[in-house]
Amino acid sequence: MGANNIHKEMIQVVEAPHPLIKHWVSVLRDGNTPSSIFRDAMAELGRLLIYEATRDWLPTIIREVQSPVGVSMAEFINPKEPILVVPILRAGLALAEHASSVLPSSRTYHLGMSRDEKTLLPSVYLNKLPDRFADGARILLVDPMLATGGTVIAAIDLLKDRGVENTQIKVVSAISCPPALQKLKIKFPGLQVYTGAIDPILNEKGFIIPGLGDAGDRSYGT
């Protein structure tokens, strides 16, 4: 699969052009998509975006294996260096649902954050992050909607408080918007963002236009 790379100074934003990614984004956009199918579509999109985000990021080991007809040197994902997946609840759970089907070795740390509808500022209601991440940890931060950027920035700050560098983080999102990407560019040089689509407009309520609505509400029907 190819990818369109948009370099914003030292931040890299990848809007992956694969037809399957475009398909699942379109299913998510459709206001007539029922909750159960919406959640499945979010999970499928997440699987593809995680594949793209980790294509050059997975540590490997080489060892000898015996096939039915001969000996071969084989390359495996190193189980001693798992990718760490941090979904931002609620909707991040749906986008990260199939992470384990892509990643042979991974660990998940949940982070619950909500956005005040008036101030648009985030608050943390659940934090399962460790006190300190191991040196060199590779972290996928999963946030479906990068709108104002407040939530993802607060989440990255929490990661950095635990010893993580910008280059150790890749953000996975369904839809992104320029205001969030601009803030990430300024604050976190070296960060990478993998997204299903970049939409041009953020309305006065902090919703991405055309976007896909409230990803959490549509994923879980509440």
UniProtKB/TrEMBL annotation:
This is uracil phosphoribosyltransferase. Belongs to the UPRTase family. Keywords: Allosteric enzyme, Glycosyltransferase, GTP-binding, Nucleotide-binding, Transferase. One of its GO terms (cellular component) is cytoplasm. Its EC number is 2.4.2.9. InterPro entries: PRTase-like, PRTase_dom, UPRT, UPRTase/APRTase. The keyword Glycosyltransferase applies. GO terms for molecular function: GTP binding; uracil phosphoribosyltransferase activity. Pathway: Pyrimidine metabolism; UMP biosynthesis via salvage pathway; UMP from uracil: step 1/1. Its cofactor is Mg(2+). Residues 17-222 form the Phosphoribosyltransferase domain. The keyword GTP-binding applies. It is an enzyme of class 2 (transferase). It comes from Rhynchospora pubera. One of its GO terms (biological process) is uracil salvage.
